[in-house]
């Protein structure tokens, strides 16, 4: 190998080596950052916006439950036409007798008001259950927010990783192509055999295949990024791990997760709802007390032109004695459901604990892999340099050089993967702790507040227009 060809090969190798630092290098002023991508996902992700709408749906449960305290008012009106012909039982004569005919138009209108007074505390418990359901839906929203932000961070890092790997594979194709050209030149002058040429040709075909696969992986990662973030990735800046939000020990991470994770809180609210539903079911066995008032105006009731006005106020006490066993069954069913919700809460706690432990291990492994990959790159670069020098004097074969190049490429790909894994694992750990949200990440967004809509609708007595005007 002459000196000119050797310098060209080393320039290609240097170009490939720079791709390793794509996950850590400096970025331009116009580049998309990981934080801005997360902000985009927070504001426009359809899954997250759908969950916000779901919380607003649950807000109306409170207004519906409170309607049990309020009166029911109904107005009625009716009109008809009657024809009556009656036989008087006397012979028809100049002074009467025979049959009588009556044509009337009975009509009227009225208003009825019913006001519940006591219903075995069913309404109160329904309101409390609805309020707990709203709180649970908010925690589910927080869980969805965490999931979306983690998916966005993962998609961001996947695009960075696959871009860097594609650059490495393309540069590797150029390096091996140059190696093939040099091998053919040496074969033409009798320095190597046809076998060396064939080995280089096989390796260039394999490298092109790997480059095509890397390109396909990048396209898939771009599609996922577009789905989650909402825009095409353009000039992505390096991603950084969430070291500031990562505790120093796994014990601290577990304490935070078990106290703050929204999935656990959502299940706790579900337990509250189930326990209150037991009380609602039991309330159906209690006496029911209510008041009903009505006013009716009638015309043509008995004779043409007559009218009558009636009004009444009635207090009614209903004491259930036996409901065919339905209420008792519903109570038992509600108790079983409450037990099920408690078991589900325990299950979620175990799942959160397992997620924290697993992601802590992944983060530690990624840190170790970065150090190992960097050491592997240093060793592989030294080995490749030595093999190339030895090949120049005939002590190494072309296959030895190709294998050394492949080992260096593998080491660089391992480093890129480890860098990506470290960032993603840090986000996954913070998510498992329950702290991966827009406020903790200090995202520059208009933070969504579910309490605004709740305060607007929870005490509404009338109206079909939702607060946004629709």
Automatic annotation (TrEMBL):
Q: Which domain of life is it from?
A: Bacteria
Coiled-coil parts of chain: 166-217, 363-390
Q: Which Pfam families match?
A: OEP
| Signal sequence residues | 1-31
Location(s) in or outside the cell: Cell outer membrane
Keyword check for Isomerase: no
Q: Which UniProt keywords apply?
A: Cell outer membrane, Coiled coil, Membrane, Signal, Transmembrane, Transmembrane beta strand, Transport
Family per record: Belongs to the outer membrane factor (OMF) (TC 1.B.17) family.
Name this polypeptide is given:
TolC family outer membrane protein
Q: Could you tell me which species this protein originates from?
A: Microvirga splendida
């Amino acid at each position: 190998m002459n000196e000119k060809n050797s310098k060209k090969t080393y320039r290609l190798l240097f170009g490939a080596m720079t791709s390793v630092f794509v996950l850590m290098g400096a970025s331009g002023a116009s580049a998309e950052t990981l934080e801005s991508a997360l902000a985009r996902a927070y504001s426009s992700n359809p899954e997250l916006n759908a969950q916000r709408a779901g919380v607003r749906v649950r807000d109306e449960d409170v207004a519906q439950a409170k309607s049990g305290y309020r009166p029911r008012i109904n107005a009625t009106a009716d009109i008809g036409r009657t024809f009556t012909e009656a036989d008087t039982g006397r012979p028809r004569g100049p002074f009467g007798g025979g049959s009588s005919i009556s044509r009337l138009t009975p009509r009227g209108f009225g208003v009825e008001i019913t006001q519940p007074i006591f219903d075995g505390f069913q309404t109160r418990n329904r309101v409390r259950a609805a309020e707990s359901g709203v709180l649970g839906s908010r925690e589910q929203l927080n869980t969805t927010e965490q999931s979306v932000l983690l998916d966005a961070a993962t998609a961001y890092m996947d695009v960075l990783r696959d871009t860097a790997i594609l650059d490495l594979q393309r540069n590797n194709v150029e390096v091996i192509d140059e190696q093939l050209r040099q091998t053919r030149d040496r074969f033409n002058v009798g320095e190597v055999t046809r076998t060396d040429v064939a080995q280089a040709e096989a390796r260039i075909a394999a490298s092109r295949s790997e480059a095509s696969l890397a390109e396909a992986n990048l396209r898939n990662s771009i599609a996922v990024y577009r789905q989650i973030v909402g825009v095409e990735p353009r000039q992505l800046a390096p991603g950084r791990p969430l070291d500031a939000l990562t505790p120093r020990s796994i014990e601290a991470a577990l304490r935070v997760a078990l106290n703050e994770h929204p999935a656990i809180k959502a299940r706790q609210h579900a337990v509250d709802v189930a326990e209150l539903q037991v009380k609602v079911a039991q309330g159906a066995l209690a006496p029911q007390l209510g008041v009903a008032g009505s006013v009716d105006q009638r015309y043509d009731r008995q004779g043409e032109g007559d009218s009558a006005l009636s009004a009444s106020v009635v207090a009614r006490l209903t004491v259930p004695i036996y409901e065919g066993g339905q209420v008792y069954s519903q109570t038992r069913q509600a108790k079983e459901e409450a037990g099920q919700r408690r078991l589900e809460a325990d299950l979620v706690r175990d799942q959160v604990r397992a997620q924290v432990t697993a992601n802590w291990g992944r983060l530690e492994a990624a840190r170790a892999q970065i150090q190992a990959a960097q050491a592997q790159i240093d060793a592989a670069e030294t080995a490749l340099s030595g093999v190339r020098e030895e090949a120049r004097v005939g002590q190494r074969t072309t296959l030895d050089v190709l294998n050394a190049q492949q080992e260096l490429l593998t080491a660089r790909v391992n480093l890129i993967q480890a860098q990506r894994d470290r960032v993603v694992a840090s986000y996954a750990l913070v998510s498992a702790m329950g702290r991966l949200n827009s406020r903790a990440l200090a995202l520059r967004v208009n933070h969504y507040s579910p309490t605004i809509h709740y305060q607007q609708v929870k005490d509404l007595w009338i109206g079909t227009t939702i607060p946004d005007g629709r």
